[in-house]
Amino acid sequence: MHLSALYRYPLKSAIAEPLQGSAVDLLGLQGDRRWMLVDEATGRFLTQRAVGKMSQLGARYTDSGGLTLSAAGMPALSVALPAADQNLRGVTIWKDSLRVPDAGDAAAAWLSEFVGKPTRLVQVPEARARTVEAGYGEPGDRVAFADGFPLLLIGQASLEDLSSRIGRPMEMLRFRPNLVIGGSEAFAEDGWKRIRIGQTDFRVVKPCSRCILTTLDPLTGERSADREPMTTLLTYRKQSDGIMFGQNLVPDGAGHLQVGMAVEILE
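Request: output the structure for the sequence above.
Response:
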């Protein structure tokens, strides 16, 4: 088994960035989901679930640690990394409330035009990160702006199994994984508890419950008329607490990942 693909999402729910290699820190892939859009009035997080056009929003890191935003028909905008303890804004992501730095009015104006309503851009320094979902992590396990855990893993064979049942290829990026594993059997990851990729160890802590976001084409943002892949997943991947596809991971320390690295099952 090997690491066959690696993705990060600098801005939560925006376009994926494929990588050949990445450092890993306690929050997952370095730079993954450290920025987020929030509703200006409520502070609540915004994703493709409510703003489908975010699938067409580009966000890439600059050399200085900031972000460059891009979208069709709009000039690119460079956003500086905000100071960790200034211009703090109260935000809500799922059940978590926290105070994080706001990226300023220029970014807010650009994104408000793109989204179509008053929107702010925020960033999370490591010291202000959330704790992982209760009951699944260990003391000290943290997560940035990912839904609940630092990393998401999917086996390539699991996607191929799903595609064969649907009758057409499904794009891996519908599921927004960080790590894709090649060379395993379909859904082998369901039985893993601890794995090693290269020299970095990870705990497999919880299956990933899927939502309507998976029915959006990652290239066009259009929703599947037949509600695939959720329609098919419902027939064979439903559990008591959701429709499961992929596994959430927590890193046991810092390290480095490279596409092609061997994957070892420790437990």
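The longest strand covers residues 200-209.
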